[in-house]
Amino acid sequence: MGGTVHDLRKRDSLCRYVKTLHNNGVTLQQRAENMVLTRPLRVLVKGSSVCHVATVCDVSSHAVTTAAHALVEHTAVNHVIDEAVKRGPGRGPGAGRRDLLSKLCGSGRRRGGCGAGVTESMHLRELRAAPTFEKIFELCGGGSEQNVHPCVLLTQATAVIITAYEDAGSKFRDRASRMEAARHHGMAVQSVLGLAVSS
Fold first, then answer.
1. 94, exposed or middle or buried, with CB in 10 Å at 0-12, 13-18, 19+?
2. Taking CA atoms, which of 26, 46, 73, 80 is between 20 and 30 Å from 94?
């Protein structure tokens, strides 16, 4: 079965992210047959006597991220990296703010910004080396509840995009629905690039 186990009682950003994504096992992707992102932790419980029958139990305080989640997370974070490189430093709405885009691209006046012909920043190289939301939360200075929700939305939007282009028209029958999914995915990427960064 595999996967990474997360204790949902913890208060760090990654556990809040998994808890929000898992939502007691009722996320949208839980109902999909090919894109289950999280599942409950299941354990086999058996009494001490030889005649006791083992029972499978869900551990409500824990969730497991699946292999599908690893694929979606890697794809989503790489989309964030690509958009940061494309946009570069100080462009677009909110220029000059302390957000993830400014941290990834720097000010552009010194070595370390994004864009053509400029060396990548140390933070961008770190994110490329470990394209995970855990790394994004680390770059944001731990992350608050406000930083968790855009990452959950990006994860779900990326899962929809992957499903839309792999289902051969069984769920997304027309181009318009795939374009709408792509629009929401783009908005989610922009939201993640706008995450507040603590100093």
1. middle
2. 73
